[in-house]
Structures are given as C-alpha cells and as structure tokens.
Amino acid sequence: MYLTDVLHLTCNKPNYKENNMKYLANPAVLFLLSLASMTTSAADVQVRVFERGGKAPLAGVAVCLGTPASISQFGSQLTDGNGNAIFSGLPHASILVTASRDGYKTEQETMLTSTGNRMLVISLPAGGGGTRCPLSGNAVQLSGSDLGISRFAMSSGAGVVTTRNVTLDNVVSGRPTQYRASERADFKDADWQDYTSAPVFQLSEGPGKKSVYFQVRRYATLNGANLETLSPVRKDSIVLQ
Predict the structure, then answer these.
(1) Contact call for residues 151 and 170 (beta carbons, < 8 A)
(2) Could you give the 3-state DSSP secondary structure of residue 112?
(3) N or C end: fewer C-beta atoms under 10 angstroms in the chain?
C-alpha cells in the first residue's frame, strides 16, 4: 500500500479499527497509522496536511517536530504539492507536531513515536492565529517541488520520422527519480526507468501516426513503506514513414 492511498481507504470510516490503524477523534488529526515494524530505535514520520473540510492537500505548510520548549528541535519542512513532509531518524519520544501556513489557523498535536514508520494526517481550518512553525536554515523547501511536465515532445518536436527510435525530450519540475513511456494510455507494457531528460524510445512497427504517453514519478522506499508521487501524464504524436 502506498502512503498516498491511505486517506482514501480510511477517512470515511471514523470508528474503524484494524491491525495497527487507529482513528483519532480530534478533527485536526484524522488518524495515526503504523505502517511497518522496525528493528531500530529510530522512527520515521510522514505528516500530510489537508484543508479542513476539503479533500485537497495543502502545499507550503510549515511543519515542525519538537517539544513545547523548542517546537522545531527535531526538524522543520515545507509540505510538497501533495501536502507531505517526511522526517527520518526521530527518537522514540513524545513529540509536538506544529503545522502553520498563512491564511490558516495553526494546529499543534502531540504524538508518541515508536519503532514503527508512522503517518500523521492534519487538517488546517481557514483563518489565522496560533504558534508559527519557524523553518530552520536547513529545512527542506518542497513547496515548489511538485512533480510536473512542462514540455514533452518526440525527437525535438519533429512531426515526421523515418526511424523507429525517437527521443522523448522533456522538461520537468519536482526532481523525479523515474519515468515511463508507452503507446498505451494505461502503461500496461511499460516499466519504470531511471529518469533522464531525453531517453530513447522505440516506436511500434509499421508506418503511420504513433502516440506516446509519458509520465515521471518520485519514488523511494522508507523502512518497508513505498513513497510515490506521480506527475500528470503527457502525450505527443509523431508520424513514422
């Protein structure tokens, strides 16, 4: 199960408990999920932030993990385009989570980390006020790093080619790690490959118009949990003579 799938599977069942899932009654925190057991003493936490009463994730939210005396003691980040901020190597302790953004009321929640990788979902109400999360100098700035493809063209935009091998020229944002391409819209025959800005793609046999679908993703495995962010799909067509 991908972390980005969790909310859609559980948020409509407020009293549902199964395995390691637990719904929290406080409306600011939808749930705390233990994703996988770990054998080390450090914990990893993913914080995901949504707008209260809506389904859209909030980007650019300052998230701090710390203590009441120092709310950013364990780090601070800005959420990415999917509303995510990920913190690694946290101690097994009671940690204060602070989430703040202009135009929204700050929310603070206390959570107890464990030896399991965990996900905390917070919703921010519109308005203002509350303790601000101070971003440290080395905070990860992710608010502008949402994956996107601003340009995709085969063989530099050539309308006609005489060879099956074409380049998939692309310009992207958000630091992707992999790409996939296919003449099928469902990518059924396509494997994820290491990202490059101009990979070579072999068109199917036979002359005629060929359409290719292209997508990138940012992917990592965090202590047994798969973290995946997908870009929108882009399409380009070319004529093979």
Answers:
(1) yes
(2) strand
(3) C
What pTM was estimated for this model as a whole? Answer: 0.45
Is residue 88 within 8 Å of 82, Cβ to Cβ? no
Residue pair 229/218 in contact (Cβ under 8 Å)? The answer is yes
For 19-49, write each residue's pLDDT tens digit. Answer: 333 333 344 444 343 333 333 445 678 899 9
- Asked if 168 and 212 count as a contact pair (C-beta separation under 8 A), the reply is yes
Quick one: tokens of 125? 């109400």
Rounded to 5 degrees, what are φ and ψ at 2? -80, 150
Phi-psi region of 189 (alpha: psi -120 to 50; beta: other; left: phi over 0): alpha
Contact 200, 214 (CB under 8 A): no
Residues 81-95, mean pLDDT to the nearest whole number:
83
Alpha-carbon span 228 to 84, nearest angstrom: 11
Per the rule left: phi > 0, alpha: psi between -120 and 50, beta: everything else, 53 is left
Scanning the structure block, which residue is given the tokens 């469902």? 186
Residue position matching structure tokens 């202590």? 223
DSSP conformational letter for 133: P
Task: Tell me how far apart the alpha carbons of residues 49 and 61 are, in angstroms, rounded to a whole number.
Answer: 8
Dist. CA 225–CA 117, nearest whole Å: 8
Decide if 149 contacts 214 (C-beta within 8 A): yes
DSSP for residue 51: E
